[in-house]
Structures are given as C-alpha cells and as structure tokens.
Write a structure and sequence with these properties.
The complex is a heterodimer. In chain A, 85% of the residues lie in helices and 0% in strands. By secondary structure, chain A is mostly helical. Chain A is flat. The relative contact order of chain A is 0.04. The chains are: A mainly alpha, B mainly alpha. At the A-B interface, α1, α3, α4 and α5 of A face α1, α2, α3, α4 and α5 of B.
Amino acid sequence: MLFVLILLFFAGFLTGRFLRTDWIRKYRVLIFLTFLLLFALGVEIGSNNDVVSKLESILLSSFAVSSFAVLGSFIFAIIFERVSKK
Amino acid sequence: MVLLLLSSVVAGVLAGRWTGLRLPDWSVNAVLYVIVFLVGVDLSKEKVRFDVIKKVLLSVVATVLGTYAGALALSFFSPMKRFEVLAVASGFGWYSLSAIIISNLHSAQLGAIAFFSNVMRELFAIVLTPVLSKYSRAAVVSIAGATSMDTLLGPISHYTDRETSLLAFAHGFIVTMLVPILVNLFLAFR
C-alpha cells in the first residue's frame, strides 16, 4: 500500500507538469474527495460494533496521544530554535 | 472547515450504525489513491526554494523527535502498547492516511484512535497558531506537523511572514512523505 501511494504521488507529480492543474484548486476537488473519504471511513467505523462500543475510551486515548504529541513538538521546536540562533 | 470535515465523519458513522449502509471494501482506498495522485499533480506546479533547506530539515527533526518524545512519555502510563502509541503519533496530523493504513494493517479500533488523535492534532494547531505565532514561529510549524502544507498553511501564512509560510510548506511536504513510512515502521514492531 505504501509503495502504491508513493508511486501514485510521483506519477501525479511528473504528469502534472504537462497538464493544466488549476481546476484542482478552482473546484476544490481535494476537499470534496476528502469529504467522500471521511464519510466512507465513518461508515467503516460506524458499522464496526467493536469500535462503537469502545468509543469513549477511543476518544480518551486519542486526546492523550494528540496532546502529548503537540506538547513534545512544541518543546522541541523551541529548543531547536534557541540552539540554532546561537 | 474542520467542523465540516468532522461532520462528514459523523454522518458516515451514523449511516453505518443506523442505516445498514455498507460500502465495498475498496472504496476508502480508491478515494485515497485519487487524492494522493491529485496532491502530486497539484504540487508539481509549486516551486520550493532550496536556500531554506537547513531550516526546513531542522524543523522536521524537531517535529519528529518532539512528537515521539511526547508519545514515548505517554506510553509509560497509557494502557496502549508502546508501538501502538508511536504508530498513532506517526500520523503527524494526517488523519485520513494514518487511520486507513492502521485499520488495514492493525485493527479498526487503533485506526479510529489514529483518526481522532490526528484530527485533534489539527484542531490543536488551528487553535494554537494565532496564540503562539508571536512567541515562536518554529513551534507553530512543528505543532501543525504534516498539516503545515495544507490545512494549516492558510492560518500560518496569515499569522506569520512569507519565510515562515515557505518553511511551513516544505516542512509539511517532508513530514507528509514520512507519514506512511513511519506508520508502517512502528506497526512492524508488534
């Protein structure tokens, strides 16, 4: 799957040079596709009884991971900024 | 925008829960492949200046190390397994991709955690960018993670300067490329 994604990305990157690409932004194609993607992902989550029954603990774990990741990035970015300025 | 995106997930969850709607297994992947291809097409027209490369690499290292330092600290008192916390944190805010890879390769439950935690990272970034931009521009970019090249690029360029916007874009680009690699790496550790 990873291989397919990287391949597709570079295929797009290379072919895009020879195409008109302004329609992607003009018609907000990526946002529309993201809605579709998230809806499909939601259907997958909602139809999985195991996930629905544990939703509370899932949200709690999610909050824990995201807040620690954000805090860590914040601290390291500040340290790197201070060190590189010296 | 984040609210709209969230509500499409909620709509999907409700539809899957109450209407018995079932989509074919390939549908999520098919949409994701189209998105990744089109992001590539879209980016082919961007020009990244290379004189900021040292700053960019430094900020990428800060983002990655900082995220893992936070995730590692959490893993000592979380009921989740260490590799699970690290794999979820490896989404760096790119919720759609990390959630799909993790639910494919691990479980729907960890995929759901990856989804929500990375959505929350994006929400944190949206809320914190106006507050922190005066204090540290590097911190604003690192907190945004992979989203510094798309969703957060607008807010970052609004609250900082052009140089930081360029940094944000290149940083997000590299972190985005790292997401599938690092998520796969940590899932291989189970």
